[in-house]
Amino acid sequence: MPELPEAEYMVRRLVECATGVRIREATVLRASLIAPQSPDDLAETVRGRKVVGYARRAKNVLLHLDRGWTLRVQLGMTGHFYWVPDARVLPRFTRVWFGLSNRAALVFEDARTFGNVHLHRTEELAAVFADYGPEPLDEGFTWQQLKGSGARAKGPIKPFLLDQSKVVGLGNIWAAESLYAARIAPGRAIPEMDDAAWKALHRAIRKTLSAAIENTFRVTRSGEEFPEADLLACAVYGRLGEACRRCKGPIERFVQAGRSTFHCPACQR
Ligand SMILES: [Zn+2]
Q1: CA of 47 to the centre of ligand 1 (A)
Q2: Is residue 123 included in any domain, yes or no?
């Protein structure tokens, strides 16, 4: 499932490959992915619009268009949004695509169709994202802000990190990796987090996500490739029974809030 690093990777690739492009046409191959909008409405609105910038908010890829429109791509489980040089050979799971000049296209590929593409007035985006927590990689994101998000929370720390209203962009993989880096057990109760723990977690989240973005670039060569978590040098995720890189003890797994949680019970407390 794409998390923040993959979404950030897609945005940076779009900037590289498709800055300043103009949309000539939009083709919707799976109408349910743009509902409640109709394919005709979408095509009509974006036809001739120039892409004036790409951005990311949490796991949304944003295409800012001229005349105050923004396309918002939610990646869902398997979504991937990227530039292709020749739309005559579209990827197999293309659901929506935007034809550009010289046969190039911007493609939304989504095998399992849990993602979607929505068109908004750019000025409405603040309201669209009203329930989202802060961006962990923003310059202004502080440990006090992270601690503040947990002020009234009582439960364990890992499900808290997956709650996008507290802090955005952490999915199951990077929440586990961040907790390992901070030496905090996934089951630690939030009221038991002292300032040192919040500081360590804040530092670990930023370091883990930044490294994941760099690794995504390292293991992929084009915008079309999609990095798998096992290529991204995880320390605990997916490593059940393997040796902890710090203490050499075995990595364990348990189910927490319905999700598989990997950790080192010896060095995470
Ligand atoms: Zn360990």
Answers
A1: 55
A2: yes
129 band by pLDDT with thresholds 50, 70 and 90: very high
DSSP state of 258: T
Give me the residue label for tokens 């109709």. 38
Tens digit of each residue's pLDDT (9 = 90 or more) over 165-196: 999 989 899 999 999 999 999 999 999 999 99
Whether 71 and 118 have beta carbons less than 8 Å apart is answered as yes
pLDDT range class, residue 13, cuts 50, 70, 90: very high
Residue 3: active-site member: yes
The residue out of 104, 128, 152 marking a domain boundary is 128
Assess whether 259 carries a catalytic annotation: yes
Structure tokens at 9: 């990777």
Quick one: pLDDT at residue 1? 76
Whether residue 254 is found in the same domain as residue 186: yes
* Residue of 13, 59, 72, 166 with catalytic role: 59
Assess whether 227 carries a catalytic annotation: no
Which residues have CB atoms below 5 A from the ion given as ligand 1?
244, 246-247, 264, 266-267
Q: How far is CA 241 from the centre of its chain?
A: 28
Is 115 found in the same domain as 20? yes
**Catalytic residue, candidates 12, 203, 206, 259:** 259
Q: State whether 123 and 14 are in the same domain.
A: yes
The range of the structural domain enclosing residue 256 comes to 143-263
